[in-house]
Amino acid sequence: MAIPKLIDVEISSDRKSITLAWNNNESARFHAIWLRDNCLDANTRDPQSHQRLLTIQDIPENISMAQAGICESRNSLEFTFTPNDYSSEFPSSWLYQYRYSANKLPENGFVAAGIELWNEDLANNLPRASWKALLDDDNALAQWLRNVRRYGFALIYDLPVTDNTVSRVVERFGFVRTTNYGRYFDVRAEVNASNLAYTSLGLQVHTDNPYRDPVPGLQLLHCLQSDADGGESTLVDGFKAALVLREENRVAFDLLSSHSVRFEFCDEGKANLSAKAPLITLSPEGEILEVRFNNRSTAPFNLPFDVMEDYYAAYRAFAEILERPEMEVSFHMKAGELFIVDNRRVMHGRKGYSGAGSRHLQGCYADRDGLYSKLAVLSQNNLT
Ligand code: OGA
Ligand code: ZN
């Protein structure tokens, strides 16, 4: 993007803010206190760590603009504050990038920029990459990580069919989150299973471990063996489903996003986990941040008597949307394949399986910050 040129600056009559104009017809207002807080100079930010040295109390409460002007040769804004005569400078590009005065809050129930909501149509174009490409080529890795951010899931094929490969995948972009299930865990039918995932039963689409605080942001499942009948994997975009619910049944959406429920998991003598959260978490601004949905591990709802029946109706309405065929992408994982999901957004499930053959997956958890950080670092290195 070409950097727009600063062409005008005007100090407001109370001197508490300025209005800037660029040569692309855009303008924006900035407060004196905001400008002081964000100065880029070495008194304000440590040049080495780039961390802020200033505290809020270091800024005079009555700060205002003494003077502001454009430096044409550097395409920057120079200014001095009063009462302490502090001077600094911002590049036009920085001010343009961080301009805020045009921000209007979207209506309650929106998703972050960069997220692409999906339904069954994504089946024609599943985000996927070979393990070799991800290992050898940082560009391919950046593309794959970007897809995880955009769609909340992605696939890998041609992985070795060996123990613990799933953690090696995580180590390519981030950090394994160890839990009571271990660094990684086997998903196959077991006798006396401690979790229904370790049986051959079907699993309704769900997010994993809603009984944990914080919930693991990422889950990976790697297929080592898959010659049983059935066992297809299903994925649903939980944010898309939440927005469908909002569209069709606003009362239900509001109920699910305004009440918390508890989730729990107990493995006798080994783990006893419990966490409380709404099924749909909104930010204070109304952005959809997270969905938690897991029929196996909801604790008895503890809601006001007069809310209980309506809440159950809302819960049912959400579940019915999640199970609509047009909402889901489903596939039969083969040995050497893996999927990753954003466990705060995309739900996964499986059909029941049986027959003479076996089915064996290995799973692993990780957090999203490591993945986003790796993506940001790769992007800074100008990988596309
Ligand atoms: C799980 C799970 C799905 C599968 O282990 O969390 O949902 O396909 N497994 O076995
Ligand atoms: Zn699961």
What do you see in this structure?
By secondary structure, the chain is an alpha+beta fold. The protein folds into two domains: 6-97, NE0471 N-terminal domain-like, CATH 3.30.2020; 120-380, Double-stranded beta-helix (4-Layer Sandwich), CATH 3.60.130.10. It has nine helices and 23 strands. The strands form seven sheets. Strands 7, 8, 9, 10, 12, 20 and 23 form a seven-stranded mixed β-sheet that branches. β5 (76-82) and β6 form a beta hairpin. Zinc ion is lined by residues 197, 206, 208, 348.
Strand content: 25-35%
Total number of beta strands = 23
- Give the domain tally: 2
The global form is elongated
What would CATH call the architecture of the largest domain? 4-Layer Sandwich
> Which bin fits the share of residues in helices?
10-25%
Poorly predicted regions are none
Rg for CA atoms: 25 Å
> What is the CATH topology classification name of the largest domain?
Double-stranded beta-helix
In short:
Helices cover 24% and strands 30% of the residues.
List the helices and strands and how they pair.
Blueprint: E1 6-11, E2 17-22, E3 27-31, H1 32-37, E4 64-71, E5 76-82, E6 87-91, H2 92-97, E7 128-130, H3 131-136, H4 138-151, E8 153-157, H5 165-173, E9 176-177, E10 185-187, E11 203-206, E12 218-226, E13 229-230, E14 233-237, H6 238-248, H7 250-258, E15 261-267, E16 271-277, E17 280-282, E18 288-291, H8 305-322, E19 328-331, E20 338-342, E21 346-350, E22 353-354, E23 359-366, H9 368-380
Parallel strand pairs: 7-8
Antiparallel strand pairs: 1-2, 2-3, 4-5, 5-6, 8-20, 9-23, 10-23, 11-21, 12-20, 12-23, 13-22, 14-19, 14-21, 15-16, 17-18
Bound molecules: N-oxalylglycine and zinc ion.
